[in-house]
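Reply to thread "Modeling small-molecule complexes from scratch"

Following up on the discussion above, here's a worked example others can learn from. I took a protein sequence and the SMILES for zinc ion and predicted the complex. Inputs first:
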Amino acid sequence: MASKTIINRYKCKQVGGNVTVITYENTSIMFDYGYAFSSSKIGSVDYDFKRNHIDAVFFTHFHYDHVGRFHLIPKGIPMYMAPVTKRHIQYKNPDGAAKYDEFITTINQGDKIKIGDIEVIPFLSDHSALGSFMYVVKTPDMNIVHTGDFRLHGYMAKTLYKNLKHDILMACDGNVDTVITEGTRIIDYPHPDITTHGMQLKAEKIFKKNKFAFFYVTEIDPESISAFYNAAKKYGMNFFVDKKIFEPVSMYVPFGKEIDERYNYEDIICEDDIKLSEDVLRKGFVYLISINDNCLNEIYKFKKFKPVFIFSERQDYLIPFMGNYKSNIADFYNKAMKVCKKSYFMHTSGHASRKELRIMLKSLRPKKVVPIHTDYPLLVSLLSRPYLKK
Ligand SMILES: [Zn+2]
Ligand SMILES: [Zn+2]
């Protein structure tokens, strides 16, 4: 008999702005409602909530392309998200978050949320957003796993391995009918990934030899910040954070601590004018900067100490004519490099490599794969084929 469960995808043949709706008879639940990236030719979905009833919206994580448009969902529809995701939208969109506060329920790994005939269970995943979830969705005739964005090389890789090989499978009674999976990096050059732990070890080597380091990563990536913090603390260095980004950087700490002790970078110091004190000269520092003139002045101030610059974002931000080129960041970098002794590039991807997609599929052995979050859904289907359960 044909399944009564229906999976609809909206704007899913691209990376970002994807929306998935799972329906069983009269119950429909949505996953994510974010913006397409500015480079998108497909755009964001304007879901017709009036015509197509939605009973609840679940968010996989706090990235803009997944949660950014929560304030466009009609009021009254219950929303479910991790506590840190709620905190993040309160920071990014305080008015919107206040208006929707009464409709938001925070959920944790293993919770069983019943929406009509459908049961949803969140599991902690490994991604560049703290508190990312994979969801098990159980309808009366189907077990579905929605991967959200994921990877298997961050601090949370061990947790996700365990979840994929055991807890998620158990929640599906050993039988996964469909995996809705991301496929962001399906055509990436298959270079080996640097793990977050590997990045931490590399940073330790740098800090062992260099007492003064300026470093750049987006302020909404607490995992990369943790990696550099943990490395700095090994050598007793100060860890400064630019005043302009101190609020978002520090707001993740209480949530991170709950998830894994490696995210505990409590001992950070808000700074916008480093004094040449005895303490600073003795201990040295790692300074998480943001892109502004004051931070550039701070770098220039330390010229005679030959500081190093660590760039922990995609390297193509700095290369003109590349799709991801960001001229303000590239200008800053070029100016900083006039006084810095050396630069280091270290970036951990938030997404699964082809090898990691295969590991996920091998663990879950679904009957069917539904690709989302990829420019090449057909390639994701082809990659999946050998792992499908007959
Ligand atoms: Zn995404
Ligand atoms: Zn993401």
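What I'd highlight from this example: The chain has a mean pLDDT of 95. The first strand starts at residue 5 and ends at 10. Questions welcome below.
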